[in-house]
Amino acid sequence: MFHYVHILKSTKSGDLYIGYTDDLRKRPMEHNRGLNFSTKPGIPWQLIHYEAYRNKKDAERREKYLKTNQGSRLLKRMLKEYFYQSKK
Q1: What Pfam family does this protein match (any one) (predicted)?
Q2: Which residues, in sequence order, are CB contacts of 8 under 8 Å at separation 6+?
Q3: Residue 48 — φ and ψ, nearest 5°?
């Protein structure tokens, strides 16, 4: 079983959402159905990146890190081309 850290981008506002899930197919659909209070205003959401981990604690630690300032900067460097092309 894998544990996933996923990054969603709101096609409405451009906001990013960083989350953790055990079911990568189901969780983004739940966000788009408005089942999550914090992501409801940004519907629709698009999955732009995910990382898979065998250990749950590793995935939770990575999610927490990506939500920090330093983690956010790393994410923007990792997905530099994606963000550059989405501005066009």
Answers
A1: GIY-YIG
A2: 16, 17, 19, 28, 31, 39, 45, 46, 47, 48
A3: -115, -15
DSSP 3-state percent helix, strand, coil across the chain (nearest 5): 45, 25, 30
Pick the CATH number of 3-86 from 1.10.8, 3.30.70, 3.40.1440, 3.30.420: 3.40.1440
pTM for the full model? 0.91
At 78, list the tokens: 């990792």
Pairing of strands 3-10, 45-53: antiparallel
User: 13-40, pLDDT tens digit by residue?
Assistant: 999 999 999 999 999 999 999 999 999 9
46 and 25 Cβ atoms separated by less than 8 Å: no
User: Hey, is 2 helix, strand or coil?
Assistant: coil
Give me the residues paired with residue 7 across strands. Answer: 18, 49
